[in-house]
Amino acid sequence: MKMARAVMSEIKRDHIHKLLAKGRRVDNRAWDEFRPISIQPGFSETAEGSARVRIGNTDVLVGVKMTVGEPFADTPNKGVLSTNAELIPLASPTFESGPPDEHSIELARVVDRGIRESQMVDLEAMCIEPEKEVWIMFTDIYVLDYDGNLFDAAFLGAVAALKNTIVPAKDNDKGEDFPLPIRHFPMSVTAVQIENSILVDPTLDEEKVAEARLTVTTDENGDLRAMQKGLAGALTLDQVYKVIETSQRLGNDLRKLIG
Amino acid sequence: MKLISDDGIRYDGRKVDELRPIRIEAGVLKRADGSAYVEFGKNKVLAAVYGPRECHPRHMQNPAKAIVQCKYNMIAFSVGDRKRPGPDRRSVEISKIISEALDYVVFTENFPRTSIDVYIEVLQANAGTRCAGPTAASVALADAGIPMKDLVPSVAVGKVNDQVVLDLQKEEDNYGQADLPIAMIPRTGEILLMQMDGHMTRAEFDRAIELGVGACKRIYDIQKDALARRYTVEKTEEEPAEEAPSEQEG
Amino acid sequence: MQFQKGKKRSENMNKEGQGSSREIVLPGDLLESGGRMKAGAGTYVQDGKVYAAQVGIKSVKSNFVNVIPLGGRYIPTPGDSVIGKVVDIGPSNWLVDINSPYPAPLHVNEVPWRVDFGDTARFMNVGDTLLAKVLMVDETKRVQVTMKEQGLRKLQGGQIVEISYSKVPRVIGKGGSMIQMIKNMTNTRIFVGQNGRIWLDGEIENIVFAIRAIRMIEENAQTMRLTERVKEYLESVCKPAPAEDAESR
């Protein structure tokens, strides 16, 4: 999917800046406050696990499908994770049909890295027969309504979907169904930098004005598991530390929403 | 495979002329100009309308009218085996026939050179998604405020165990003998979408149409109810402006 | 069968619903079968009967039955005052997004400044906002806008919000009463474009309050006691003007 260029009005840009100078955001949130979040686990009956997540007006549906396949040669005793994101044109006037573009590929890879590097899923337990058969997990992320901060919405959705995934062993003649073995509980928090202010959970308008973006994924112990800096601006080290500390703190709140 | 019991009860407990439970909601997405969500039993379908808007690519523009471009898509985990994202030959064909059905009801000549883009995303499939599609899409078009003749309810009728049955679900679709999806304007009896595969006698076809037309009328009422709920008006206490808003600056 | 277009939107918007209840109609709803009333805006005729073509409110006025739309995109009409956004620049024109399906070129001859060929960017750039008037619309809906009239200009400062154009009359209110109240109570300058874009300027706090009042109207455009509720909200956030305060006691 492609993202078309949308012209940001200079007046709207200035308004965001003027409010920030007074320590305010357009929707009156605190700098470290998320929009209202709703999580609907098990939305899909055709997926092995799923969740629909709304952060403000942003709406994302994530599903997990599993199949039996061959392991990669360098990890013969581990299951395979595969993550894909679709910015479908239903979700925004600026999304266009077509093969995944750099935006959807970055989104999928950032979510994938957080899941993978936190060792959320016990991949060794997903081996059926070394070198021959392992479980392959496809996590598909669909954006349904786009109003900013896809990274956290998609990550929340992916984590919630994996947590309610039941491995379809019976249908694949591999014994009884079992819940996906979960070892860790990663969570991502994304913030943007606008004129030296750090704003958590940016709306679409804030993203358009933002100079830099940072996503920090932590685990349940507060340890760092994945990061991604985006956009064409720079961050100071102090700003990086601020986002890390915020991610550790808010990550705990977000985990409680999934349970 | 026996899908209908001797006393006429189907695989999922319905009678031969019974629809699955249907739920329709209008105006469910924020960014889209119009939207609708439809559940037909275990089918879950989301439709969004963008437009009329500038038509891209430019060579598709029609100087006399808007073009209606529908894209029907099944998401990866909407079916048993994961479907690879992106269009396939089936979805391209379905997109075309739904575009044509919707084109008929929209007053396209009002919006020359534009396109009205309709996106149908099948979130969960259980047979009959090409009928849930136009059912949702026509509600989304109305929700987008687009001038149109009428809504377009749609349903599939089929043949299972030598009996004509309404609104096939997955097992009946897989093991049935015929499938006949239709979409129509109930008030005028105009058929806007029709496909058929399998084997039906003329008498069975007539019976199928009778069941399908009756069902479309019921679906139509549910569509209208969804829109009425979205646009419920309490009595207002004042009149809109008399003046054009040109001298509003103070 | 042909869709009936209104001659001018404002003609159909005013004075409707007098004495009669507001009836929501949906596409395909029968409005008139006895041949007593003629097909007005937002309707179509089939076999001598008049049907609704849009989601809207049924309104009967001087023997015409109309549907006042509750949604849909803004379609420009000559003379409309609109708020536009520059989305592209050419050597002798700007391309202006007026929140409609049709982007509108603004030619250098239609601005209040003398602009040399290729010098357009010196006056207005991509992302700039302007107050314009729809100059002409041809039958294929090719639109031209102009800034050559008193009061039309480039807008600077303040904030822009977008609402559905169909809710513009509600934001303005009867005889401008609603918008006047918001302006007075928040002490902001407000311009409402017929294309659903609203420009507000003043103290930034007050702009925020005024925007929230406009959002209240947008979300509750069809509900009772709207004026009072907006007033109550603004009274709760804005400092009351001292003179009025004394008077009310």
Helices and strands in order:
The complex is a heterotrimer of chains A (259), B (250) and C (249).
Chain A: E1 2-3, H1 10-21, E2 37-41, E3 49-55, E4 58-69, E5 80-86, E6 95-96, H2 102-117, E7 127-129, E8 133-145, H3 150-163, E9 166-167, E10 178-179, E11 187-194, E12 197-200, H4 204-209, E13 212-218, E14 224-230, H5 237-258
Chain B: E1 22-26, E2 34-40, E3 43-54, E4 67-74, H1 89-105, E5 114-124, H2 129-143, E6 154-160, E7 163-166, H3 170-175, E8 178-185, E9 190-194, E10 197-198, H4 202-230
Parallel strand pairs in B: 4-5
Antiparallel strand pairs in B: 1-2, 2-3, 3-5, 6-7, 6-8, 8-9, 8-10
Helix pairs in contact in B: 1-2, 2-4
Chain C: H1 9-13, E1 23-25, E2 30-32, E3 38-39, E4 43-46, E5 49-52, E6 56-61, E7 64-69, E8 81-89, E9 93-97, E10 104-107, E11 129-137, E12 143-146, E13 154-155, E14 159-162, H2 168-172, H3 177-186, E15 189-192, E16 197-201, H4 204-219, H5 226-237, H6 242-248
Parallel strand pairs in C: 3-7
Antiparallel strand pairs in C: 1-6, 2-5, 4-5, 6-7, 8-9, 8-11, 9-10, 11-12, 11-13, 14-16, 15-16
CATH class identity of chain A: Alpha Beta
Counted beta strands of chain A? 14
Number of helices of chain A: 5
User: Helical percent range of chain A?
Assistant: 25-40%
Q: What is Rg of chain A?
A: 19 Å
How would you describe this protein?
By secondary structure, chain A is of the alpha+beta class. Chain A is built from five helices and 14 strands. In chain A, strands 2, 3, 4, 5, 7 and 8 form a six-stranded mixed sheet that branches. In chain A, strands 12-11-13-14 form a four-stranded antiparallel sheet, with helices on both faces. In chain A, strands 1-6 form a two-stranded antiparallel sheet. With 250 residues, chain B is an alpha+beta fold. Chain B has one domain: 2-Layer Sandwich (Ribosomal Protein S5, domain 2), CATH 3.30.230.70. Chain B has helices at residues 89-105, 129-143, 170-175, 202-230; strands spanning 22-26, 34-40, 43-54, 67-74, 114-124, 154-160, 163-166, 178-185, 190-194, 197-198. Chain B has a five-stranded mixed sheet. In chain B, strands 6, 7, 8, 9 and 10 form a five-stranded antiparallel sheet that branches. Chain B is globular and about 55 Å long. The N and C termini of chain B lie far apart (76 Å). The radius of gyration of chain C is 21 Å and the shape is flat. The longest helix of chain C is centred in the last third of the chain and has 16 residues, at 204-219. Chain C is of the alpha+beta class and 249 residues long. Chain C has three domains: 9-69, RNA polymerase II/Efflux pump adaptor protein, barrel-sandwich hybrid domain (OB fold (Dihydrolipoamide Acetyltransferase, E2P)), CATH 2.40.50; 81-155, Nucleic acid-binding proteins (OB fold (Dihydrolipoamide Acetyltransferase, E2P)), CATH 2.40.50; 159-240, Ribosomal Protein S8, Chain: A, domain 1. The chains are: A alpha+beta (259), B alpha+beta (250), C alpha+beta (249). Chains in contact: A-B, A-C, B-C. The interface between B and C is large, with 51 and 67 residues.
